[in-house]
Amino acid sequence: MISEGVDRTTGVFGEDVWTAGEPTAPGPTVVRELLHPLPGAYAGPEIVVSNNPETVTGPGWLMQHARTTVTRGGTARALSGRFPLYLYHQNSTGQTAYLHILIANPGAERTRVSLRGTAWTNKDKPLIQDPAQRAGTGPCYATSEDWLTGNLRQWLPSTAVEPGALIEAARIPMTGSITDGLFEVTAASGVHTYTVVTLDGSTDSARRYALDDTATAPGNVISQTPTTYGRMSGVYAHSFWDAGRSRVDVPAAGHHLGLAVNVTGRQVPSLDQTAPATAALTDSSQRSWGNYGSWYDIGLRLRNTSCEPRTVRVTFGSNITAATDVPGDTWNGALGLTVDDGPEEIVTGYVRPTEPRDTLATLSVPPRGSRDVRLRFIVPGLISAGSQLLLESV
After folding, report:
1. How far apart are CA 242 and CA 161, in angstroms?
2. For the chain, how many helices (H) and strands (E)?
3. Radius of gyration of the chain from its Cα atoms, rounded to whole angstroms
4. 371 with 361: CB under 8 angstroms?
């Protein structure tokens, strides 16, 4: 599931598309409507997401794509090959609960499945409450960092699953109030996945809840409406924004260029980077508004056509600003930064309403020369859509 190397040109930005002066939005950042579309396209395998209800107050099933249910709707859709499963839930049961990932074989023949990935609670990886000090902390950051560094656990080795069987692939003790995880399912033929919460940690209890339409976990289910995004639960069409590599001609100092990252069609229709649901529960988001758990891979060839050296500052930014910080409006994730042919460095992208920009690198581009920059990252939990990659000639 980790993205492949950037090896093609998808966009060209000449000096004429840069804007003179400082960006005009707070930060300063670029006004969302003035951002340029991020080259490339949303692609890759379908992604299973479990985030509705986000806050869980009792046992039951959270997500499934095995059937249409009486209580929450949905659609049967079997997935095969390698596909990601992302989950984010908050435990408000009043005790340690257990989050189970189950896999079912609906086919007529035996199949093989495996599961690898990472999951953390905020007891394992505390999320510092002071917004000004929380960069690089918390379970969402740890999950994104693990996938960049390859620090992954084999939760289920390759296992034969008989026709009609339902097996447990992972059980995560929800010892803290937040649980965040990203996994990769490998299935030789079509399978269905479930997420279930139990209070006793029993696989039998998890199976019983999964197969009972009425055994839905209580919590704050939020549906998509004309004015609300809802929360994701089910299967969505894509999991990887493949931006390729864009050629960017750097102008003299005093110019800026903003590229849209994880922007929705409700924010700016022409900048939409969401995917449609293919088997989401009816009471959940019908588009991947937040893209939680999805990969982005952005390549830039910074080119200097002049006879003098030029300098570029690369900044991650957000258009969500306010006088106080809110955890859900904070991007706090690990990014893989590669410059030229050097090793990938893990840096922190940390923006919040009171500080909506974070400089990732400042690069000098030699006369008649170029520098290559590549950014790889997973969209972490606890964020809002609507970010930007800001380039400034300084």
Report:
1. 33
2. 2, 22
3. 22
4. no
Q: How many residues does the chain have?
A: 394
Distance CA 273, CA 42 (A): 7
Q: Which residues contact 374 (CB under 8 A, 6 or more apart)?
A: 6, 245, 297, 298, 299, 300, 336, 337, 338, 344
Exposure string (b/e) for 245-265, b if CB count within 10 Å is 16 or more? Answer: bbbbbbbeeebbbbbbbbbbe
Cα-to-chain-centroid distance, residue 224: 19
Question: Which residues lie across from 331 on neighbouring strands?
Answer: 351
351 strand-pairing partners: 331
Answer for the pair 54, 178: CB distance below 8 angstroms, yes or no.
no
Q: pTM for the whole thing?
A: 0.96
Q: 49, 59, 144: which is closest to 87 by C-alpha?
A: 49
Q: How far apart are CA 215 and CA 130, in angstroms?
A: 38
Q: Output the pLDDT for position 9.
A: 73
State yes or no: pLDDT of 189 exceeds 70: yes
In angstroms, how far is CA 14 from the centroid of its own chain? 30
3-state DSSP assignment of residue 297? strand
- Side chain identity at residue 170, one-letter code: A
Q: Please state, in angstroms and rounded to a whole number, the distance separating the CA atoms of residues 72 and 149.
A: 37
For the segment 228-248, what is each residue's pLDDT rounded down to a tens digit?
Answer: 999 999 999 999 999 999 999
pLDDT per residue as tens digits for the range 19-59: 999 999 999 999 999 999 999 999 999 999 999 999 999 99
**How far apart are alpha carbons 289 and 271 in whole angstroms?**
12
Alpha carbon distances (Å) from 313 to 89, 171, 390: 36, 44, 8
The answer to whether 243 and 87 are in contact (CB under 8 A) is no
- Tokens 């050296």 belong to 309
Yes or no: say if 1 and 239 are a contact pair by the CB < 8 Å rule.
Answer: yes
Cα gap 328→229, rounded to integer Å: 14
**Residue 164 DSSP class:** T
**C-alpha count within 13 angstroms, C-beta hemisphere, residue 145:** 18
Instruction: Give the SS3 label for residue 178.
Output: strand
Residue 29's DSSP bridge partners are 25
